[in-house]
Specification:
Blueprint: H1 6-32, H2 36-65, H3 71-96
Helix pairs in contact: 1-2, 2-3
């Protein structure tokens, strides 16, 4: 195995640590946030960014040590397509089941006229 240049070590390490940090923050949000809608937001956004950072680090590592490696892009594309869709479906199910929300979570369905595009 060949030795990586120092600049490559730093760049790859940066993306892996950044991705791991986002994934950790998303996991904490899932654990600590008070209700379903808030808990749904944290892992969807942060964990997707976390996996994205780790995938960028992996692409860089394997492209520098071997040949151009884009296999990881398939993982990223699949994740970036499925995470928002599944979060949307879970949010709609939560609204349909009328899950209890905390007072801090805004429910825009209570005053729909306030958020209307109509010119009165």
């Amino acid at each position: 195995m060949s030795e990586l240049p120092v600049w490559a070590d730093w760049v790859i390490s940066f993306f892996i640590v950044l991705g791991a940090s986002f994934a950790f923050i998303g996991s904490l949000g899932l654990l600590r946030l008070p209700d379903f809608m808030a808990r749904l937001h944290a892992p969807t956004k942060n964990t997707t960014l976390g996996v994205g950072g780790i995938i960028i680090g992996s692409i860089l590592y394997f492209s520098i040590t071997d040949a151009l490696s884009l296999h990881e892009l398939l993982i990223a594309i699949f994740l970036f397509l499925t995470a928002p869709i599944s979060a949307h479906l879970l949010a709609k199910a939560g609204l349909h089941l009328e899950l209890k929300l905390t007072e801090q979570t805004q429910d825009l369905r209570k005053k729909p006229e306030q958020y209307s595009d109509r010119d009165d």
